[in-house]
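Contributing: when you submit paired examples, paste them exactly as shown. First protein:
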Amino acid sequence: MPAGLLLYTAATPNGHKVSVFLEDLKAAYGGPEYDVEKIDISTNRQKEPWFIKLNPNGRIPVLVDHNRNDFVVFETAAILLYLQQHYDKENRFGFNKDADPDNYSELLQWIFFVHGGVGPMQGQANHFNKYAPEDIPYAKKRYTEETKRLYGVLEIRLQDRDYLVGPGRGKYTIAEPNVIAWIRFHKIAGIENLDQWPRVKEWVERATARPAFQAGVQVP
């Protein structure tokens, strides 16, 4: 019998964001169970007509929720927020927007910071440093330096915190896999180590040591 959720994904930062959080939910609640269909993006399978019907943007990951009339969700931040809304009933990885509106707002702020900053900037740094068919020093420098600046923003946020969001020193939320899934690949972006950002380095090590995180990055 198929699981309640179906995840179309690949072994990329964006794919890992969702699989890590699904494993977080399983560790916390025992579910939901999910099936995985691996998409080989090197063959442009995600551009085929059947996939475009699921996500007109032709990108992974995509989540299909069989528990809710086969509702389809694309864009990683939207998927994380959807899963937290519907499957994190005790708000272990987020905040109730009505009962705790300030922390909920801060969660959105850091998710959107990544969606508009770290993701696209490091994505370009990764491309020009490793995958581009020609060497373009200006592009490599531009996007690597901007990625470093964004890591610096995270360093400021973590000065007296263990996690990005939450009262006191914060708590582990969906904000963590949303950005750490990218930071794990810093070497591809031309950043050899995280020593320049000691608080970020410690935070990444803390989060990635979680068994659920380790399981999630093995998907697919």
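Second protein:
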Amino acid sequence: MGNVQSSLPAYYNADPTNEAYTHSLSKYVDLASSAIGAKLIKASNERFGAAANLINPCEPTSDAWVTRRHNPESDWAVVRLGSSGTIAGFDIDTRGLDGTHANQVSIQGCLASEDARVDGNGDVEGAEWTELLPRIEVSANSRHLLALWTPTSEAFNFVRLVLHPDGGVARLRIYGTVVPNRTEGECDLAC
């Protein structure tokens, strides 16, 4: 029969009721949390809210990354993860945003030197972006827990959240497994 391409998306809803205490991503680490050293590197626009809010480990209140509206191009934010790792899923949280949320988002990742520079287009020096989550629609005032059917086999240490075309996201959680960053040379795990 040969190889047949599935029409299913590369991800699934990890918590369709939005109420589960544990879900398929519960066993993974939030690599994009400032609590483990994640840093916001650069954002295209922070008109109504700081992009650093994305990596805040606390539940959202009225703080979110919100860009100017009626943007002719997409807005983006680049986050250096707290640790490089393989990716298993995402939590795109728009709670607290009713009418100012992004309508669509996508997520890309790359593996680069920890001190790599990010240019004005959101590209990381010396790295190519890999699509982790294709462009999807998101709802206002909701958590979107999306698990990949199969976690990535390669590790990433930078992610770029893209808002199509603009709007806001309260929190971004990138769930995965910690993997040493091989772009930095030898890694002595005995220390």
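If you have annotations for the second protein, write them as plain sentences, like these:
The chain has no helices and eleven strands.
The CA atoms of residues 97 and 152 lie 30 Å apart.
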